[in-house]
């Protein structure tokens, strides 16, 4: 009996060691690509440094300055406005399309593929495409609006302080809605039709079915999607930078662009790193607030 037990224990230990061995590559990659850069960024946030010859310890100076710097507050508030508008657009458009695609009709698979295309293209490609579409000289958007009689002269969509921000928001909504649509569609398809049939028998109308069956069933998915979508677009950089580089002026200068400019244009890497850590904390707080508000278990 003792030999069998020893053999079993040895086999269990070997099985666990094999698991650690298989998990090591991904753990190493995460440590190299995520944990180390974050730790190093936190480290240099305490220095006034150009990363080469200048290393002056300043402690929490840049963190304290951020709370009194108007440009930081302005960028953060603009980023919150950007995030809220984009996420709301994603959920409105994604919910409508998911509801339509959940119905049985001919060619449904084709439409699902078409509506997924924006998510499959890289952000830089989408940004360059819409930059061309909105070009004030030869962009097709102005030609279409003029042919419909909506405008009489070309409009500089990305060169106007009033229009650049909503133009970027629209582009980001178009880019990101397929993810929300797909997640909601998967949730809708997982709801048993028997629940709706039982609700009809009990005298429930469509609104009652939506309120007491659809929304509660989708709550776990909606909670996850809204957290991921909010954090993703709060730290958005590529698409906005490619389209406007934060301009004109500071009309689209999100906090991610401010951090990039501070670090790589002004060569104030310590300050940029401190702002990056603060953005990480803000993203964590967004996650926590959503979980409390939505009462996620």
TrEMBL record:
The chain crosses the membrane at residues 20-43, 82-101, 113-134, 163-188, 240-260, 272-290. Keywords: Cell membrane, Membrane, Transmembrane, Transmembrane helix, Transport. It is a multi-pass membrane protein. The keyword Transmembrane helix applies. Pfam families: BPD_transp_1. Its main location: membrane. Gene3D superfamilies: MetI-like. It is found in: Cell membrane. Residues 76-290 form the ABC transmembrane type-1 domain. InterPro entries: MetI-like, MetI-like_sf. GO terms for biological process: transmembrane transport. One of its GO terms (cellular component) is plasma membrane. Belongs to the binding-protein-dependent transport system permease family. This is Multiple sugar ABC transporter permease. It comes from [Clostridium] clostridioforme 90A6.
């Amino acid at each position: 009996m003792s030999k069998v037990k020893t053999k079993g224990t040895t086999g269990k230990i070997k099985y666990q060691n094999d698991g650690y061995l298989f998990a090591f590559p991904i753990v190493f990659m995460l440590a190299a690509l995520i944990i180390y850069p974050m730790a190093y960024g936190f480290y240099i946030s305490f220095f006034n440094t150009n990363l080469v010859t200048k290393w002056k310890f300043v402690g929490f100076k840049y963190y304290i300055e951020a709370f009194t710097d108007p440009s930081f507050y302005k960028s953060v508030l603009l980023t919150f406005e950007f995030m809220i508008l984009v996420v709301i657009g994603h959920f409105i458009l994604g919910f409508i399309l998911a509801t339509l695609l959940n119905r049985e009709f001919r060619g449904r698979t084709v439409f699902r593929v078409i509506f997924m295309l924006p998510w499959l293209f890289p952000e830089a490609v989408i940004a360059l495409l819409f930059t061309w579409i909105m070009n004030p000289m030869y962009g097709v958007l102005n030609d279409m609006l003029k042919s419909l009689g909506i405008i009489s002269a070309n409009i500089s969509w990305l060169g106007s302080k009033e229009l650049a921000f909503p133009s970027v928001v629209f582009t980001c909504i178009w880019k990101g809605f397929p993810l929300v649509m797909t997640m909601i569609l998967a949730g809708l398809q997982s709801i048993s039709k028997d629940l709706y049939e039982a609700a009809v028998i009990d005298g429930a109308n469509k609104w009652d079915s939506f309120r007491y069956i659809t929304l509660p069933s989708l709550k776990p998915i909606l909670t996850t999607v809204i957290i991921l979508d909010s954090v993703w677009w709060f730290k958005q950089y590529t698409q906005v930078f490619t389209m406007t580089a934060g301009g004109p002026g500071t009309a689209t200068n999100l906090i991610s662009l401010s951090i990039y400019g501070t670090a790589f244009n002004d060569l104030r890497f310590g300050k940029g790193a401190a702002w990056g850590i603060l953005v990480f904390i803000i993203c964590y707080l967004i996650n926590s607030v959503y979980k409390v508000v939505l009462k996620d278990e």
